[in-house]
């Protein structure tokens, strides 16, 4: 690659990922609007539907969100009566995030979203799955190369 091509927008992995993430999130919007939640609230609920009653710190790590982003998000979900935060009786320093009955019930409303989303994609299932797996691998590689160098 010619040095002059190094800084062209179309040659940037970061921009390709950014643009793709925005477009994918845009496809989710109508489904999430039906539930009255944002994409970030959706992925938070997905994590809690998978494993309820988790410490805030563990939830943040699972979602790759820092506390400055996660705390307002959790406050909003709590105000919507979808979750509750409570001190861990085993460790008062830790706050647990638990789904409410309304939060658990929303799972039934959301169960069709993955299929509805996939139907909008113009990718065969094999390519979709391969791409998802590659993105997970990339995320893991980037996280492992940077997590030890960031300040806590």
Automatic annotation (TrEMBL):
Keywords attached to this entry: Cytoplasm, DNA-binding, Transcription, Transcription regulation
Cellular location(s): Cytoplasm
A Pfam match: Staph_reg_Sar_Rot
GO biological process, one term: response to stress
Domain of life: Bacteria
Residues forming coiled coils: none
Alphabetized InterPro entries for the sequence: HTH_MarR-typ (IPR000835), MarR/SlyA-like (IPR039422), Transc_reg_Sar_Rot_HTH (IPR055166), WH-like_DNA-bd_sf (IPR036388), WH_DNA-bd_sf (IPR036390)
GO MF term set: DNA binding; DNA-binding transcription factor activity
Domain HTH marR-type: 10-140
A single cellular component GO annotation: cytoplasm
Protein name (Swiss-Prot/TrEMBL): DNA-binding MarR family transcriptional regulator
Source taxonomy: Bacteria, Bacillati, Bacillota, Bacilli, Bacillales
